[in-house]
Specification:
mainly beta
Length: 341
């Protein structure tokens, strides 16, 4: 595997006898670089008839880091094809720096952005790192990423519309990839030019929940599965999708009761899937106000001023707040209006 999760690294050498005579025996030696100092492993091989091939396994017991392993054959009279190299990154299982959120369909006039996260226990120097799409790579400005920290790489910070969580950094690289609205991939490479993480996405993955202004959140840090952000977007913050337990659905309302001539109330919902609908009903089951629907997602928190869809303040009484998601999960709660009209 490359990158390799841990040492010792298994390296397979593929050898073919392209000469005109059989080879009785030969040796292959593995080094940590082309200077051929300090052999890491070797193997005595043979015989190998003309036209035949062999696969030789070698092992490199090395500390974590970036290597350009170099293998050389001995006993070969053609020096032009008896050497080969392979760049490998050796590190812990699961890369600490990863892509966690992608805004590839911003609202008109707002920028694209990509969020990266350090889920490890050590600060990572990002000098020399690059990010990009399927076609091009661009430099990440020199910075460090603390454990548990976020960096939002933004196409244009001057028009970035959101507020980051405390400690997160907003950075504008000198170049930006053109992220497609479907069928693309976001890639992250370290200073040695080795792939650290990639997150592909396609419109078919999101159903009807993806629209302009909604980000794609990675379901699990370090993974590549994505879904629509249940909170609309969470740049520089923990993904909203991480805090939702499968099967959990609830509605909280505060203040409750409330007087719409004096104040508004806040309706907060928790649902395990995207494609959220939130609506207010009277006790006869008539829908009076839609706070969110899958075609117009606005997050997980809603300010309701006690008015119906026509703009009229509802009279005093009991109302039902009902919410559901595309996965069939639902929850409801009762809100009381006092005063009113």
């Amino acid at each position: 595997d490359n990158p390799a999760a841990a040492s010792p690294v298994l390296i397979r050498a593929y050898i073919t006898n392209v000469g005109e005579t059989d080879v009785e025996n030969f040796q292959i030696v593995l080094f940590s670089d082309s200077t051929e100092t300090g052999p890491l492993d070797s193997s005595e091989c043979g015989p190998l008839a003309t036209g035949e091939s062999a696969i030789i396994s070698l092992h490199a017991d090395v500390p974590d880091g970036s290597y350009n392993f170099f293998a050389r054959l001995s006993g070969d009279d053609n020096f032009s094809n008896d050497r080969s190299s392979l760049r490998v990154f050796v590190g812990p299982d699961g890369w600490p720096v990863c892509i966690t959120e992608i805004m590839f369909m911003p609202v008109t006039g707002e920028p694209e952005w990509i969020e990266i996260y350090n889920r490890g226990e050590d600060t990572v120097d990002l000098a020399g790192w690059q990010f990009g799409d399927e076609i091009s790579l661009h430099d990440i400005p020199d910075t460090t990423l603390d454990p548990g920290g976020y960096i939002v790489l933004c196409e244009d910070v001057s028009i970035f519309p959101d507020t980051l969580c405390e400690g997160a950094l907003l950075i504008e690289p000198s170049g930006w990839p053109a992220l497609n609205n479907t069928g693309d991939v976001v890639r992250l490479f370290d200073a040695a030019g080795l792939p650290r993480h990639s997150v592909p996405y396609d419109a078919g993955e999101f159903g009807s929940c993806m629209t302009n202004g909604i980000s794609a959140e990675v379901v699990e840090a370090g993974g590549s599965s994505v879904g629509c952000s249940p909170a609309c977007r969470t740049p520089g913050c923990d993904n909203a999708i991480w805090g939702i337990v499968s099967g959990e659905a609830r509605v909280t309302i505060s203040p409750n009761p409330f007087d719409p001539t004096v104040e508004s109330t806040v309706v907060e919902v928790t649902l395990p899937s995207s494609g959220i609908t939130v609506a207010i009903y009277d006790r006869l089951g008539r829908r009076l106000k839609t706070l969110a629907d899958p075609e117009h997602p606005t997050g997980l928190s809603f300010v309701w001023d006690g008015r119906d869809d026509s703009g009229q303040i509802l009279p005093s009484g009991m109302y039902i707040v009902f919410t559901k998601d595309s996965g069939g999960n639902s929850a409801k709660s009762v809100v009381a209006i006092v005063g009113g009209r």
